[in-house]
Amino acid sequence: VVVAGGIEREDRVAAAGGPVLSGTKTVSGTFAVGGTITYTVTINNTGTAAQANNPGDELTDVLPPQVALVSATATSGVPVATTGTNTVTWNGAIPAGGSVTITITATILPSAVGVTVSNQGTISYDADNNGTNEATAVTDDPGATGSANPTSFLIGAPVEVPTLSPLALLVLTAA
């Protein structure tokens, strides 16, 4: 309340809106031992302010032990693939109404036959627009009903390529 010349007046300042981040995660590839899979994580900012590249990671994704991390790329920002811990982190800014896509490549390990693998990434963001990532969300599989679902797939047996004996090759060549 401000008093000026005997007149009371109330000044109000609207709070600035902040970023609102959410993410989807899908998987594609060969779901068999030795196969290569690709996780695609898309982080969207539906808030009224940009998400800055604040201290700390804006995405942390620890891959399950049934897969071995190979690499990570992103359409913007900086992805880091730490193969020793099977962890992908991403740091970067996302404008209001914008998005970023992080692509993670991994290989399915031999011990994983018949296992269902489930995985989610954690998104950290600055909901109150104060320069600190205090809010979190998890990635959602858009193919599953509901929200905040992990991305899952079943690992099959290795794909075997048939081979021919030298005699069979000779017969095939002669034919």
* Poorly predicted tracts of residues: 9-15
Helical stretch tally:
1
One letter per element, helices H and strands E, the order comes to EEEEEEEEEEEEEH
Beta strands, count? 13
Mean pLDDT: 89
Q: Per DSSP, what share of the residues sits in E-state strands of 2 or more residues?
A: 35-45%
* Rg calculated over all Cα atoms: 24 Å
Q: State the distance separating the first and last CA atoms.
A: 98 Å
Strand order of the largest sheet: 7-8-5-11-12
The structural class is: mainly beta
Please describe the biggest sheet, giving its number of strands, its sense, and whether it closes into a barrel: 5 strands, antiparallel
Shape: elongated
- Helical amount: under 10%
SSE layout:
Blueprint lengths: L1 E3 L2 E3 L11 E9 L6 E10 L13 E4 L4 E8 L3 E5 L4 E5 L7 E10 L7 E4 L2 E4 L9 E4 L12 E4 L11 H9 L1
Antiparallel strand pairs: 1-2, 3-4, 4-9, 5-8, 5-11, 6-9, 7-8, 10-13, 11-12
What does the model show?
By secondary structure, the chain is mainly beta. 5% of the residues lie in helices and 42% in strands. The protein contains one helix and 13 strands, in the order βββββββββββββα. It has one helix at residues 166-174; strands at residues 2-4, 7-9, 21-29, 36-45, 59-62, 67-74, 78-82, 87-91, 99-108, 116-119, 122-125, 135-138, 151-154. Strands 7-8-5-11-12 form a five-stranded antiparallel beta sheet, with no helix packed on it. A four-stranded antiparallel beta sheet has the order 3-4-9-6, with no helix packed on it. A hairpin with a 4-residue loop joins β7 (78-82) and β8. The longest helix has 9 residues, at 166-174.
